[in-house]
Amino acid sequence: MTDAERRPRLTPPIADVRRAVRDTLAAAGLGEGDRVLVGLSGGADSLALAAAAAFEGPRAGIQVGAVIVDHGLQDASAEIADRAREQAVALGLDPVVVKRVEVATADAGGPENAAREARRTAFVEALVEAKASHVLLAHTLDDQAETVLLGLARGSGAASLQGMAQASGSTLRPLLGIRRATTRQACLDAGLTPWDDPHNLDPSYTRVRVRLEVLPVLERELGPGVAEALARTAEQLREDAQAFDEMIEEVIEDICEPAEAGIAVSVGALEANPPALRNRIIRFVVFSEFGVALERVHVVAVARLVTDWHGQKPLDLPCGIRAARAGGRIVFSTTGSTTMLPHDH
């Protein structure tokens, strides 16, 4: 078979996916001599992404490989991983890394969270082993819309409504502007046969119920374009959050100082800011110092130490963190290590 016979006819879906990959690689500053891996499950989204990356990468001087994670959650998981590996090799991807992981099904965050954490660890290991800089993940516009709806249902604020970032550390998501139907058609147009994960039809998963029941109802009752509107909302909130974070980073060193086993923030500085910025500073400081993302109920409780001070006892926050007002400062520390500054009266 000649190259011309092997090469799929360029159709709008294939062109859309390729363009998304090309733009993302360029925006990340990747070029000659770089190497990336595609997170490949064999499903339509990741298969379309792999095909597009295999086409666009070499044209930009980028070596493209694949990482396939076998979660071991289905009887035929090894065969499914092998099939994905064969498809990656056929597309010309190199290296192709298969990582078999154990998922802690009793994880407190549920099986979805456990699988996600195992997958994330596998991706990090694969990047190191392959000497690659980035992993490309196949989350689509539909995935983004589902993420925003789930965040809205949890009531966890603007942070969760931002959805997923196109670029975050070593992770790139080229398909956040591409619909799931487009990736499936791109596979069909290219003669690729995707694997359909039965978990994607299992209503015991919250995300599946959102995908199969909630979004279709919204589209039917409110009109088409709901998924796109949710994705736009995520993008706008991410822009707002970036602006807030830049403002915080400009002032954070001036209003914080080290404390025993933690960090202290000036009460006066917090009080001088409007609630939205004050709450973000609290959340930012705790996450930066301890790697813990506070929920709104915790942030509001800490804020009361600033705006409604009447000698409250220290607050116990998640993951063994304590917040106390002392000496004109809010001191965040690990439990039992709160710095004993002179108390406010």
Outline the structure in words.
This protein is α/β, with parallel strands linked by helices and 345 residues long. The chain folds into 2 domains: 225 residues, Rossmann fold (3-Layer(aba) Sandwich); 75 residues, 2-Layer Sandwich (Uridine Diphospho-n-acetylenolpyruvylglucosamine Reductase, domain 3), CATH 3.30.465. Strands 3-2-1-4-6-5 form a 6-stranded mixed β-sheet, sandwiched between helices. It has a 5-stranded antiparallel β-sheet with strand order 7-8-11-10-9. The N terminus and C terminus are likely disordered.
Notable characteristics:
345 residues, Rossmann fold, Uridine Diphospho-n-acetylenolpyruvylglucosamine Reductase, domain 3, 6-stranded mixed sheet, alpha/beta, disordered C terminus, disordered N terminus, 5-stranded antiparallel sheet, 2 domains
Furnish the topology, listing elements before pairings:
Blueprint: H1 3-6, H2 12-27, E1 35-39, H3 44-59, E2 63-70, H4 77-90, E3 96-100, H5 110-130, E4 134-136, H6 141-154, H7 158-161, E5 167-168, E6 171-172, H8 180-189, H9 206-222, H10 226-255, E7 256-259, E8 262-266, H11 267-272, H12 275-290, H13 296-307, E9 315-317, E10 321-326, E11 329-334
Parallel strand pairs: 1-2, 1-4, 2-3, 4-6
Antiparallel strand pairs: 5-6, 7-8, 8-11, 9-10, 10-11
What's this entry about, in short?
With 345 residues, this protein is α/β, with parallel strands linked by helices. The chain has helices spanning 3-6, 12-27, 44-59, 77-90, 110-130, 141-154, 158-161, 180-189, 206-222, 226-255, 267-272, 275-290, 296-307, and strands at residues 35-39, 63-70, 96-100, 134-136, 167-168, 171-172, 256-259, 262-266, 315-317, 321-326, 329-334.
